[in-house]
Amino acid sequence: MASDPINIFIAYSRKDKPFLDELRTHLRILQRNNTIQQIWYDGEIIAGQKWDEVIEAELEKADILLMLLSADFINSDYAYGKEMRQALERHERGEAIVIPIIARACAWDMTPLAELQAPIEGKALGSATEAQRQDYYTRIIRDIAKAADQRRAEKENTQRYFADKEAWENALKLNSINAFNAYLEQHPNGTQTEEARQAIARIHQQKENERQEIERKAWQQAQAKNTEAAYKDYWQKYPNGRFVANANTAIQFLQQDRQRNSQTADQQSFQQAKQTHTVAAYRQYLVNFPNGRHQKAAYRTIRRLEQSPRSNDSLKKVGLGVLATLVLVLGIWGIKNFSNDAEPTSLQDDSVVENENNIPSSEISSFDFPIPEMVFVEGGTFIMGCQDGRDSDCEENEKPAHKITLNNFYIGKYEVTVEEYLAFVDATSSHYPWWLEKESIYNIETGTKKNVYKELGYGKNASKLPIVGVSWRDATAYCRWLQKQTGKNYRLPTEAQWEYAARGGQRSLSYQYSGSNSLSEVAYYPENSNDRPHDVGSKKANELNLYDMSGNVMEQCNDYYSYHKNSSKNNTTNNSSTKRRAIRGGSWNNDASLCRIAYRYGSSEHSRGINAGFRVVY
Fold this sequence. Notes:
alpha/beta, 4-stranded parallel β-sheet, 4-stranded mixed β-sheet, 19 helices, 12 strands, 45% helix
């Protein structure tokens, strides 16, 4: 930063002009080395100028004011009364430096100038020998040079101050990251550098909050539409968004639903063909499902019908008589086994879910199977939902917070494990997890696609991993099976029971996550999961000695995916016309904000994903 030039003004009495001339001669060296720029005295006034106005102006702009003192100077009304007074006023304001130089001995120490330090200890030039006087001038010039350096530094500081102030005011006016960065670049050591950095951080945070709010709304819109296109649109707009893992999971659920619906339609179409039992009906089935799971059976039946010497109508009549006889002799189950054309019912058909209730206890009671370890939860009243002041990152489907009162209950200490669930599968030969179904493209032994379950460590030997790849219906069937074996009313927890237990029940310490405000202490999530679930109970338990309620895998609840707004209900469950069921808790591939206790999600009863399991209550 270039400073303004340093100018000198000399006030003197006419009778001291010889001293003025000698002083100006000695000052030339300061002009030559650019210490000062101008040496002004009244001899510089041009003819025609108003001398008093010129003197006043020059005195006002000078940086160093030399008072060449003598009795005649003190006796001059103009020099003493005006020039000296104006000079001292500027000195007091810090605008200039006044230096008294004693030309001839006088009582200068009785003037206001006596407070100022004079060069050469205030010795008079006129009282010195020639040699002494030249030495005095040399010492005076050195003092003036120091004063010039001091004044230059003061002017530069003043310039920096006002430049700093102007730049800061401009940055505040624009209130942008670029403006505050420009201030820091121009004034790296400015008076407002820390405030500028704080302002930049604040604006960044505001922008991030705005971005997250826009993203959150986009995610909520995708959830409201609940279509593959909506979820794909979300993660295309936000490839690194907070809800990408949830979007991918939702897409997987929808694809599974679509596949299941297709399998259901396939099954229903084939059943209709079997009921009609004509060549045309089976051909129509093949048209509707050219790659259907009953394709071979349809072709075999068509060949037999076409090779039969009887017409289809005659065959139907004979068939009715034969069927009536077989019913009397063999019973309905015999007919199903007797027919070579009958196809096995899908393991996930609704009929199988209902048939489980009819499994005789004598057939499975002899199995030696592991039972989930349960923890007693003392009932009480708590605030359910996301509550300001206690929770953060609240979403609309978590509000309003409201009181719920619960009775005592027991809940699984851990998420249901592979070992526990496969005991049920082995006992009933039904409700296989997706990664064990022979017909599944994800099957560990026979699958043709990249096996995500195998990569996650799943298999029959993964006994302590939380079970995944099972639907809400599968989980409910497991609970009913446990009921039969133990006589206890096992079921999935209500949302209220789940949240109450996750918060620590009567022992709650109001943590953000289940058991801690530090998620890594109690949960597996993307930052520490290594992209896979882990054995249950590997992290710190919560206040009730329950594990993994904020991570590892999400947990399915008994309730429909609606929300209570009635604070007077006790032991309440959600009832809704929606077909989606509530899921709670975070998972190994969920962002930290989705592992909060208050976070809620919903999925189809048939959906089976790689990050959702369950725990039981009674």
